[in-house]
Design a protein that fits this description.
InterPro entries: Gfo/Idh/MocA-like_OxRdtase_N, Gfo/Idh/MocA_oxidoreduct, GFO_IDH_MocA-like_dom, NAD(P)-bd_dom_sf. Keywords: Oxidoreductase. GO terms for molecular function: nucleotide binding; oxidoreductase activity. The chain is of the alpha/beta class and 330 residues long. The protein folds into two domains: 2-114, Rossmann fold (3-Layer(aba) Sandwich); 121-275 and 310-329, Dihydrodipicolinate Reductase, domain 2, CATH 3.30.360. Helices cover 37% and strands 22% of the residues. It has helices at residues 2-11, 13-18, 29-38, 50-57, 71-80, 95-108, 122-133, 162-179, 284-297, 305-324, and strands at 23-25, 45-47, 61-64, 84-87, 112-114, 139-147, 183-191, 203-210, 214-221, 234-239, 242-246, 252-257, 267-269, 328-329. The protein has a nine-stranded mixed beta sheet with strand order 13-12-11-10-6-9-8-7-14, covered by helices on one side. A three-stranded parallel beta sheet has the order 3-4-5, sandwiched between helices. The protein has a two-stranded parallel ribbon with strand order 1-2. Helix 6 (95-108) links the parallel strand 4 (84-87) and strand 5 (112-114). Helix 6 (95-108) runs antiparallel to helix 10 and helix 8 (162-179) packs across helix 10 (305-324). It starts with a helix and ends with a strand.
């Protein structure tokens, strides 16, 4: 994942001019040295002791790209050194740890935000703009399918609740952003299907109650071979006037009812606008740029921890519901 972050910075002229990498920390320093060599990172301090490297380099920002179990200590250490912190998702390994990080950031007077890069893509931004226009009427439901046979190897294949904790948060966060609603409750069934190469929780089906009577459903699997969806899921968004479908790639279609008679009413296509700001459609680069702009302007980044915890709360509500087989309030 660190490679993806450094690549995003290197490919964006504005980020290249705004950011200078002064340190690389890894439990395996050889991995950090390999990253520095691959991207020609000059003069960076390399080590395995985060506290020591922060003390030596005194950076403005720490990019936290560690596994979820290590996140709390890494973020807390960076905040103690006066850094702003941009973390990989999920924000924390528990809801309690997420609230603690919000508190620590407030006490330090620094920003802590989360890379929800999949809300910073063209399709999501276009859908959000269409929903805001009212062309679909009032949104009543969002339905998402995510089915990919993903063979990662490594830590994911040993994680508990791997789909919900490591991947579903992208779809949950995008749904919350698109609908502009607050999550209220969750029902979820989680399983590890026959043939799964994961240790736990490779598939899940969830129903969320959102504010204003909106329903969000999610069906997902990371061990579904044979007909992969997009990584962004396949979407159906229903409003009181019409429906939008999105394959998670380039195919967005929307129709609204224009007839007033007949068993099935006459439909007409809705023109789906482009994103309001194309600079917000470049995934990791857009999240990083938003974070840097917030530091410079003294504003709050879009994915600040005190907002992103609402997406994390959806994840842990789904996990708790799957464990107890009960409806869980958020």
């Amino acid at each position: 994942m660190a490679k993806g972050w450094v690549k995003a910075i290197a490919a964006d002229p504005e980020l290249r001019s705004a950011i200078r990498i002064v340190g690389l920390v890894d439990v395996n320093p050889d991995a950090a040295r390999a990253l520095a060599a691959e991207f020609d990172v000059q003069g960076a301090v390399i080590g395995s002791d985060l506290d020591a490297v922060l003390g030596e380099t005194k950076p403005d920002i720490l990019f936290d790209i560690v596994v979820p179990a290590a996140r709390r200590d890494v973020v807390a250490t960076a905040l103690r050194h006066g850094c702003h912190v941009l973390s990989e998702k999920p924000m924390a390994a528990s809801l309690e740890a997420g609230h603690e990080l919000i508190r620590l950031a407030e006490e330090a007077g620094r920003l802590h935000a989360v890379v929800q890069n999949r809300r910073f893509i063209t399709g999501v931004r276009r859908i959000r703009r269409l929903v805001e226009s009212g062309a679909l009427g009032e949104v009543t439901a969002l339905h998402c399918d995510f089915f990919i046979g993903a063979h990662f190897g490594g830590f994911r294949e040993e994680m508990e609740h791997v789909l919900l904790l490591d991947m579903a948060i992208h779809t949950f966060d995008a749904a919350r952003f698109i609908a502009g609603k607050t999550p209220l409750a969750a029902y979820c069934h989680e399983e590890n299907p026959r043939g799964s190469w994961y240790a736990h929780g490779a598939a899940a089906t969830a129903i969320f109650e959102l504010s204003d009577g909106v329903t969000f459903t999610y069906r997902g699997s990371w061990c579904a071979e044979g007909a992969n969806t997009s990584w962004e899921s396949a979407w159906r968004i229903i409003g009181t006037r019409g429906t939008l479908t999105w394959d998670g790639a380039d195919d967005l279609q929307a129709n609204a009812v224009v007839g007033s008679e007949g068993f099935l009413r006459e439909l007409a296509p809705i023109e789906i606008p482009g994103p309001a700001d194309p600079r917000q459609t470049h995934g990791h680069a857009s999240v990083i740029a938003d974070f840097v702009a917030a530091i410079r302007s003294g504003t709050k980044p879009e994915t600040a921890g005190d907002d992103n915890i609402n997406s994390l709360a959806m994840v842990f509500a789904a996990i708790e519901s799957a464990r107890t087989r009960q409806r869980v309030t958020i």
